[in-house]
């Protein structure tokens, strides 16, 4: 009988600790999924920003590219930025649009 109380107490503490750790893991997973959703929303917004810059400035003379390497896109954007009078923010948005 004297041993039963400490063993019961240990079992109770272990089960509580186990339940707490699982709840903590679940909240971490929920936070990670919420952060991923937020990152995707930001990525989509920046893609739209770059597309909008392209449509407002570049599409007067150019069709949207189907894709090219980051090295080429960086060179193209730097040269055309001067000619089109684009801001630094517009340049960065275009680079994100060309290379998602």
From TrEMBL:
<keyword id="KW-0479">Metal-binding</keyword>
<feature type="signal peptide">
    <location>
        <begin position="1"/>
        <end position="19"/>
    </location>
</feature>
<dbReference type="InterPro" id="IPR009056">
    <property type="entry name" value="Cyt_c-like_dom"/>
</dbReference>
<keyword id="KW-0732">Signal</keyword>
<dbReference type="GO" id="GO:0020037">
    <property type="term" value="F:heme binding"/>
</dbReference>
<dbReference type="GO" id="GO:0046872">
    <property type="term" value="F:metal ion binding"/>
</dbReference>
<keyword id="KW-0408">Iron</keyword>
<protein>
    <submittedName>
        <fullName>Cytochrome c</fullName>
    </submittedName>
</protein>
<dbReference type="GO" id="GO:0009055">
    <property type="term" value="F:electron transfer activity"/>
</dbReference>
<dbReference type="InterPro" id="IPR036909">
    <property type="entry name" value="Cyt_c-like_dom_sf"/>
</dbReference>
<dbReference type="InterPro" id="IPR008972">
    <property type="entry name" value="Cupredoxin"/>
</dbReference>
<feature type="domain" description="Cytochrome c">
    <location>
        <begin position="45"/>
        <end position="100"/>
    </location>
</feature>
<keyword id="KW-0349">Heme</keyword>
């Amino acid at each position: 009988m004297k041993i039963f109380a400490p063993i019961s107490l240990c079992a109770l503490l272990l089960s509580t600790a186990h339940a707490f750790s699982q709840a903590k893991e679940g909240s971490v997973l929920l936070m990670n999924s919420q952060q991923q959703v937020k990152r995707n929303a930001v990525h989509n917004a920046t893609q739209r920003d770059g597309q909008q810059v392209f449509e407002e400035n570049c599409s007067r003379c150019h069709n949207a590219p189907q894709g090219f390497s980051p090295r080429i896109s960086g060179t193209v954007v730097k040269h055309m930025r001067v000619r089109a009078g684009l801001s630094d923010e517009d340049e960065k948005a275009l680079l994100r649009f060309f290379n998602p």
